Amino acid sequence: MSERRFEWGGLGADRGDYVTAAEALAMLEVLCIAQADLEVTTALRSGAAWARFERNERWALVSTPGSRWFSVETDTGHRLQLVDANSSKDQSAQLLAAYVDIAESYVRGDAKPVRGGGLGGSIIALDVNGRQVILTQPLSRRLRAMLGR
Fold first, then answer.
1. How far apart are CA 63 and CA 28, in angstroms?
2. How far is residue 129 from each of residues 22, 30, 57, 100, 105, measured CA to CA in Å?
3. d(C-alpha 29, C-alpha 26), whole Å
4. Are 119 and 146 in contact (CB under 8 A)?
5. Which of 65, 64, 48 is nearest to 98 (CA)?
6. Which range scores top for mean pLDDT: 13-17, 49-53, 114-118?
7. pLDDT grade for 13, boundaries at 50, 70 and 90
8. What is the radius of gyration, based on Cα positions, of the chain?
9. Share of the chain above pLDDT 70, in %
10. pLDDT tens track for 66-83
11. Alpha-carbon torsion angle 10, 14, 16, 17, nearest 10
12. Strand locations in 46-102, DSSP E?
């Protein structure tokens, strides 16, 4: 097992292969070029790079601080997150590309929330490059839905 410790901000001496938020933003901006039919906004906010993909009322937001976690969240509150404190620059680029594909697929597609089992939640199943990707609502949102709030 690795002795490497998780460190916010890439401050450790052994973090040379890790991605900063500014580098992640540059990667996202390159990945967004292919999305000419979507409205795309990119920025750095609260130490994370993000890209918002929109078409009409539908949107998806991809965010990451670099090499530590990756997230896509939709206008319906569904999301997919990956926490990976050890991803290298190459792995981070691959993960960002995959998360952009998920966001693009959601915004362009006709996926709608489907009622899931337990705690009043729902799921969204997307076909992304021939693979099924499942987005879920966070527990707090499911609890609010169950309680009618």
1. 9
2. 28, 19, 23, 12, 9
3. 5
4. yes
5. 64
6. 49-53
7. very low
8. 16
9. 76
10. 877 899 999 989 999 998
11. -90
12. 48-55, 58-64, 69-74, 79-83
The candidate with the shortest Cα–Cα distance to 134, out of 120, 119, 122, is 122
Residue 63 forms beta bridges with which residues?
50, 71
What is the token pair recorded at 28?
A: 């996202």
CB under 8 Å to 99, separation ≥6 — which residues?
62, 64, 70, 71, 72, 80
Tokens 């705690």 sit on residue: 119
28: helix, coil or strand? helix
**CA-CA distance, 47 to 67, in Å (whole number)?**
12
Cα separation of 75 and 135, whole Å? 12
Helix (H, G, I), strand (E, B) or coil at 143: helix
Quickly tell me which residue has 């960002």 as its tokens. Answer: 96
